[in-house]
Amino acid sequence: MTTSQEVPQEELLPATRRALLHRIAVGQAEGRAPSLVAAVVRGGRTVWHGSRTSVEGHGPDENTQYRIGSLTKTFTAVLILRLRDEGRLDLSDPLEKHLPGTGAGEATIAQLLAHASGLAAESPAPWWERTAGSLRPELADVLGAEPLRHPVGSRFHYSNPGYTVLGALVERLREAPWEDVLRREVLVPLGLHRTSGSPRAPHAGGWAVHPWADVMLPEPVQDLGLMAPAGQLWSTTTDLARFAVFLARGDERVLSAESVREMRTPAAPSDAADLAAGSAYGLGLQLQYRDGRLLAGHSGSLPGFLANLSVSVEDDVAAVVLANCTSGPQVTGIAADLVRIVAEAEPRIPEPWRPLREVDPAVLELTGQWYWGTQGFTLRLEADGGLALEPLAEVGRRARLRANGDGTWTGLDGYYAGEPLTVVRRSDGSVSHLDLGSFVFTRTPYDPEADVPGGVDPDGWRGMAAIR
Asked: What is the pTM of this model?
């Protein structure tokens, strides 16, 4: 008999596979989708693929193309981050610096990536998703006479024209069509051979399903023209599974792990409804806190098609869901459920603990217990050589810190993100205290021998009898 320990870890257990199949079967049936395909990634490789269809005796496979709509925006964002990493632009640059005369030049490139530019959600009528891109041959036709709906940078407001502008920026700086740049810089290096701007057989047809009757209407397929960087692409679950691995880990041929981590970081002001829903937006990536886990990815829709890619970096699990109908199945929820099913049924097995190969005594000296005023913290040396600051109580400010190579450190997240940590030493070389963004951390509460702002009362700590 084969024990559970003998099951190859890259394979899903039968019960997990059945739960995944059940979830997409319910999604296809209740959502009344002509077809629905899905894939699950774990540990950097696809471990499951499933499909459901209304066609007897035939089902789409992992190489069947579906249109992915706004998931295209994430690909466009990758191209912009590549330009930034090459030094061709800075995310804080106003658009006008690189693409003058748009009427939206005050917005920065970061604000355009994060949908905080203030631009309108859509281009002027007629509806761009169901009309030929040739109706909008110039950026002025996409942006309209009054492109702004909100003050620049004031709030998150999803904008399709914003990504059209970013696509035009790519074309200006690369001196080549957006799709050619995408193929050369992203699709080919990542092996996304079935991702393209136009459909390639085999591909699904797009359908509208009548809301009150089980009948369908074919949706037209339009070339989006200048709007292509916002929603043009077709792809497969195989290709998008590979793209999910890239969004979790990075790939030095395209973007570093640090740059894709930046994409997964919230970058736009959220309104109350977004906060209540646990959603935010990074640089070309939607972020959602669901079922106790943070999911990064993007959804997409165009007439006849729905798409979602969701990645849980902490669980090392991702899911892709594609359907060929205008509305119906909640593909974002289905993808989140696929991630949850695998993460909960087969939780990630951590790597074995191993001691560090070597350690700097000056860094080891910093570990242990510290106090900011009267609040206790611990400072721990992590396996990657960074430091982790944790409160002793359940609540308090946490931070990971990166060594700068000169004895100082920089906060990576939370309240202390970007803040400097300096180790202050006495004349004999021993550690006096830590200065973290002007906050003094001492080995004992209000250490009188440290440089505590405001000083420490020379009479020291006292009980009630001494106060009377």
From this structure: 0.90
> Token pair for residue 80?
């912009």
Residue type, 89: L
Q: Give me the half-sphere count of Cα atoms (radius 13 Å) on the Cβ side of residue 191.
A: 8
Per-residue pLDDT of the chain (468 residues; tens, 9 = 90+): 333 343 344 689 999 999 999 999 999 999 999 999 999 999 999 999 999 999 877 789 999 999 999 999 999 999 999 999 999 999 999 999 999 999 899 999 999 999 999 999 999 999 999 999 999 999 999 999 899 999 999 999 999 999 999 999 999 999 999 999 999 999 999 999 999 999 999 999 999 999 999 999 999 999 999 999 999 999 999 999 999 999 999 999 999 999 999 999 999 988 888 888 899 999 999 999 998 999 999 999 999 999 999 999 999 999 999 999 999 999 999 999 999 999 999 998 888 999 999 999 999 999 999 999 999 999 999 988 899 999 999 888 999 999 998 989 999 988 999 999 999 999 999 999 999 999 999 999 999 989 899 999 998 898 887 776
> How far is it, in rounded angstroms, from Cα 66 to Cα 61?
11
Cα radius of gyration (the chain): 26
The answer, yes or no, to whether the previous bond of 126 is cis (omega within 30 of 0) is yes
